[in-house]
Specification:
single chain, about 110 residues, five-stranded antiparallel beta sheet
Length: about 110
């Protein structure tokens, strides 16, 4: 099973921007026409029986696939919920990283 929570998605209409800070939301809205393929999700990554949670997306300037942050292993549903909440509460940090191209393109 794969689970995702959208932080940003310019590939849908209307675009999804979950930034908490109004100035960050405005910056992201100004990039929509330049970055039509950009998205950033909190996601699970299941390899065999292990499950990890991290960030994945497409960088706006090039459309290249990115992974952000370190994938964190989870061993229970409760742990997974806590990890998703941690990423969600830090969403502005992750969205700023997308804006400044901090993430390596795969």
């Amino acid at each position: 099973m794969h689970v995702i929570v959208t932080l940003l998605d310019f590939t849908v209409d209307p675009p999804i921007i979950t930034a908490h800070a109004p100035e960050l939301k405005a910056q992201l809205q100004n990039t929509i026409s330049h970055w039509p393929e950009a998205y950033l999700y909190i996601a699970t990554n299941s390899l065999n029986t292990d499950c990890e949670i991290g960030l994945m997306g497409a960088e706006g300037a090039t459309g290249g696939q990115i992974e952000a942050g370190n994938w964190q292993p989870v061993d229970s549903l409760e742990n997974a919920v806590l990890k998703f909440q941690d990423y969600w509460h830090e969403r502005d940090k992750w969205l700023r990283g997308l804006l400044t191209s901090e993430y390596a393109i795969l």
